[in-house]
Amino acid sequence: MIGNIAPIHRTEMNSESASGLPTVEGESLPKRLSVLVVDQVEETGQVLRAALGDRVHVYSAGKARQGLEMAREHRPDLIVLDLELASQGKSADAFRSQTPEVDTPVVLLGTARRNEPHDRQEFMAKPYHYGNLVRKIEELLKRAG
Prior knowledge:
The chain contains five helices and five strands. It has two domains: about 1-30, no CATH class; about 30-145, Rossmann fold. About 30% of the residues lie in helices and about 20% in strands.
């Protein structure tokens, strides 16, 4: 049956892959984007790592200070921030300032919406479903690319 298999050809894509994520100029493989998850609940990072698969590298931090250090070191394309940790004196703007783009998208997770207006910021109320969070991350990464 090997004779019936059609050869696989790489196709060049200009600005985004079939998944909608940005591609590296001149290559057909998408640029690997990164997300920093700053949440005391370790499960959040694990679920996002599994759900986003090889398309997105997920960094996780359980404390605000650790998250700021990771933002500085890894320069993520998107930040998921638990408002409980943000209330420890580290605002979304503090995290955003550690990334290459001042307008890095941030998804805030919390029980009450806080007034930190920013056009590149989304809020998800707790409890939330991981599926909705994954879709929001994919949407923001696509827009950012």
